[in-house]
Model the fold of this input.
Amino acid sequence: MQIQAALLVQPNRHFVVEDVLLEPPRTGEVQVKLAASGVCHSDWHVATGDTRQPMPCVTGHEGAGVVAAVGPGVSRVQVGDHVTLSWAPDCGECFYCLRGQPNLCETFTAPLWRGVLLDGTPRLRRLDGSPVYHYCGLATFADYAVVPETACIPIDRRIPLTVAALVGCAVATGVGAALYTAQVRPGDSVVVYGAGGIGLNILQGAALCGAGPIIAVDTHPAKMALARQFGATHTLLADDHPLAAIQALTGGRGAEHVFESVGLAAVQEAALAAVRPGGMLTLVGLAPMGSGTNLPGALLVRQEKTVKGSYYGSVSPRRDFPLLLSLYQSGRLKLDELISRTYRLDEINQAYADMLSGRVARGVIVFP
Done:
């Protein structure tokens, strides 16, 4: 079938919206009519070349929609189901899945990073027949997508699909980082560097855990009010050299938990300085491939600081997406407030310009 998609043809170019061909779902695959796709910084890493991805490709990995067709062997969803999509599908049987780490599933990781589905081929083609690759096995910057069955998480039909889309990345990654990766406890002090889509969800994840104080650090003054709305008790501008203020708010020691959601080496290094002896730095932001961070080994040893990576918030999508959405339905998780603006697919370059300027918490592409 012919669909409309936003393509990246080569790094450091704008998205190009054009018609492409989508093959029907094969065994274990599902065709989804997209209703919404979040505008995430991880896709921008592909656009800049910081994340290496076969091109041309369709990015977008934060989507929700309605099941339009299913391939042979599909049993978990049926046509008409409302689903939110996981960019880290899990097989349930590999080394990592059996050890409770489905976000690291080795069955799906390799093919998805090659831009193909599990059989090693893409379902997308340009009109001339040349292949188009899928980002994260989803490619949600299109009005239809073919995805692995295990990427589809059925949801309550009463939940707006614009909201459900955000659970697939920003919410799961941020809330999960606080709840599961770092395992923040009531009364723990928390600092979050970066108040974008991921950082705001780390803030509300820390608030759900009962942390306090919760301190947000960002370069954009406009983010200060947003950070407080999502759980920050204090906000600091990064340009004001906030370390002294953080120490003053934490008894002169630094925070039990510091989260870095930006993915820049300089911010990671500044974040480590804000960790108290015996505390933990959790790196959540996606750094450019091949980049390095200078974290002093002697200080880590002498002060027993822990540095931990958080991939997809250490969540189990099949377990945690419904949980997060139930928290939203009960009023304990802010999701509507995350959406600053919606865009048509042909406005995707403007959506990314707005994201990079810091003018939005989360933009969402919506499909008619």
Q: What stands out?
A: The chain has ten helices and 18 strands. The CA atoms of residues 64 and 318 lie 14 Å apart.
